Amino acid sequence: MRKFRLIQYRENCIGCNACFEAAPERWRMSKSDGKCTLVGGTQKKGIYTNIISEIELEENKLAAANCPVNIIKIVELGR
After folding, report:
1. Which among 13, 16, 62, 68 could disulfide-bond with 22, CB atoms 3.0 to 4.6 Å apart, if both were Cys?
2. Handedness of CA 14, 26, 74, 32 (dihedral sign)
């Protein structure tokens, strides 16, 4: 099964909720600052990442496409 790296540049999030609506299992709105948080993500220098499988790919592609500030990226990992 193919794996993908889900990347979020959270600092630029405007809290519009589009990613949560597309993939609610992977995204949550933060009550502390109103921005979206990548569930299970690890943070390094303000960039959050997580590895997902093909099963979650389509809904997270939709989350990335619906993000008005384009802060969500998906990169396929080598096999």
Report:
1. 62
2. positive
Smallest CA-to-CA distance from 71 within 48, 44, 41 is with: 48
* φ, ψ of residue 46 in degrees (nearest 5): 80, 0
pLDDT digits (tens, 9 = 90+) for 31-58: 999 999 999 999 999 999 999 999 999 9
- Side-chain-side CA neighbours of 36 within 13 Å: the count stands at 28
pTM more than 0.70: yes
Residue 43 host element (H or E): strand 42-44
2, 14, 42, 55 from 47: Cα distances, Å: 23, 15, 8, 23
> Which two tokens mark 69?
């500030």
